[in-house]
Design brief:
A three-stranded antiparallel β-sheet has the order 1-2-3, covered by helices on one side. A hairpin with a 6-residue loop joins strand 2 and strand 3. The protein is flat, with a radius of gyration of 19 Å. The chain is mostly helical. It is found in: Cytoplasm.
Length: 226
C-alpha cells in the first residue's frame, strides 16, 4: 500500500513522490550518522538549484524591479533561516536520520541541520525528477514568501547596517567569542558591538546564524532608543 512507502508522510507534505526512494534517504541522512552516505553532496546541489529557481521566479514576478532590489529579495529567500522555516513547515526534522547522540542533543530541531536537509531534499528531487519537478516543489513551498513585500525580506544585518549608516556611525562589529559542542555540530557565540550601545552576545549553529541573531537583538535595542 502507498502509506507503507518509505517517507510516505513526507512525500505527502511536500507534494512529490520519489521514483527512487534512495535519493530521499540520502537527503535526510546527516553526517553524524556514520557508515551511511550523508546529505552533504546533495546539499551542495540543492543550493544551486534553489538559487536558479528563485532567481528566475523573481525575474518573472517583478519585471519592474532593478537588479539591486531583486538581489535583496533573492538573498532573503535562499538564506538558512528561511530554509529552516520551510523545513519546519513540512515537519522535515521528524524525518532526518541522525546519530543517537545528535538526536538526543536536539539535532532534529537544529536550524542549521534542518536547513541543510531542506537543501539536500531539493537536490534529491532534482536528481529524481529533473529541474521541472524541483522547480515545482520550490515554487509551492516558497510561494507565499516570494510574494511578500520587499521590505519584509530585508535581513536584520542589512537593516542594522543601514540604521547606523543613516546616523553616520561606524558599522556594527561582529566577533566570535566562544565555540562549544561537537565538531560536527558546533555552537558559535558571537558578540555584536554598535557605538552607543552595550554589546550583545548570541549563539547559533553557524557563525552566520549567530551573527543574524545578534543583529536582530541589537536592531530591537536601537529601535527602542528615543
Amino acid at each position: 500500500m502507498e502509506e507503507h512507502r518509505p517517507f510516505y508522510e513526507l512525500e505527502q507534505r511536500i507534494g512529490y513522490r520519489f521514483r527512487d526512494a534512495s535519493y530521499a534517504q540520502q537527503a535526510l541522512t546527516h553526517s553524524s550518522k556514520s557508515g551511511s552516505a550523508n546529505n552533504e553532496r546533495l546539499e551542495f546541489l540543492g543550493d544551486r538549484v534553489l538559487n536558479l529557481v528563485i532567481a528566475h521566479a523573481l525575474f518573472t514576478q517583478y519585471p519592474n524591479e532593478n537588479e539591486g532590489s531583486l538581489a535583496k529579495r533573492h538573498a532573503s529567500l535562499v538564506q538558512g533561516r528561511l530554509l529552516a522555516a520551510v523545513g519546519r513547515e513540512v515537519n522535515l526534522g521528524d524525518h532526518i536520520i541522525l546519530s543517537e547522540g545528535e538526536r538526543h542533543a536536539g539535532g532534529a530541531k537544529n536550524e542549521n541541520i534542518v536547513a541543510d536537509a531542506m537543501e539536500a531534499m531539493l537536490g534529491a528531487v532534482f536528481l529524481d525528477g529533473g529541474l521541472e519537478s524541483a522547480q515545482g516543489l520550490i515554487l509551492r513551498l516558497w510561494d507565499a514568501h516570494i510574494l511578500k513585500p520587499a521590505e519584509s525580506h530585508q535581513d536584520s544585518k542589512t537593516e542594522l547596517q543601514e540604521w547606523v549608516q543613516a546616523r553616520a556611525l561606524p558599522l556594527p562589529e561582529y566577533e566570535i567569542v566562544g565555540r562549544s559542542g561537537p565538531d560536527h555540530a558546533p555552537i558559535f557565540a558571537v558578540e555584536i558591538r554598535v557605538r552607543g550601545f552595550d554589546p550583545i552576545v548570541c549563539e547559533g549553529a553557524s557563525r552566520r546564524v549567530a551573527e543574524k541573531a545578534a543583529a536582530e537583538k541589537m536592531l530591537q535595542l536601537v529601535k527602542e532608543k528615543k
